[in-house]
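Hello again, I could really use a second opinion on something today. My current little project is about how a certain protein chain folds up. You're getting the sequence in one-letter code plus the fold written as tokens. Here's the protein in full, and shout if anything looks odd to you:
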Amino acid sequence: MALSAASFLLGAGLLFAQETADSGSSGGGGTGILGAISQGGPIGYMIIGLSIVAVALIIEHFVSIKREKLAPPEAIDEIEELFNEGNYQEALEYCEAEDTPFTRIVAAGIRKIGHPFGTIEKALEEAEDEESIKLQQKIGWLSLIAGIAPMMGLFGTVTGMVGAFSTIAEAGTGGVEPSMFAGDISLALITTVLGLTVAIPTTAFYVFFRNRVTMLSIELGTITEELFERFRASD
């Protein structure tokens, strides 16, 4: 799925831009994908740069935002075994050595062992909220790119249209040939297409990862609560 995202973001925008350039411009600018990019000007290159960043983030999120990374099964088994043996200090040392969201949450609870269960529960909830916020901030960059890309496309559209009308104004009464402002129109159309092509799938992936973070946060909370449930009975 990550490779599909990369292909979509990097390829679709360029192909749409190429089709726009081929059908909408009658003068210069080259042909093919590179020609379409060049007609988008600096703004088009910046949008392509955003798409590359988005692809890198999507691939990284697919690798890192999953249960095996946030709460490794071996860590769960090891901590549960240490809890069953009553080796809470050793469990704390293990959590401090294994830096994952799950171990950080458990460590916050272990540090409150000996206090009333309400205190332990509050420490766990605060740690869970903190880890959830970190993950939300991590995927927030996708939301930022999804918002910036169409704005940059709109900026390119306005820039192209201003250039086209300036060309018409400078021509005066001498007549205006379409080829005189075809480059400006191409800039307007191509940057719009590129901006939307980056924004739409990036928004979809942001929502996908936001939902995944929500589900994983709930799952982490359930695991840690079951782990510390034994202290409720002894409170």
Observations:
- Confidence is low (pLDDT under 50) at residues 1-7, 23-31.
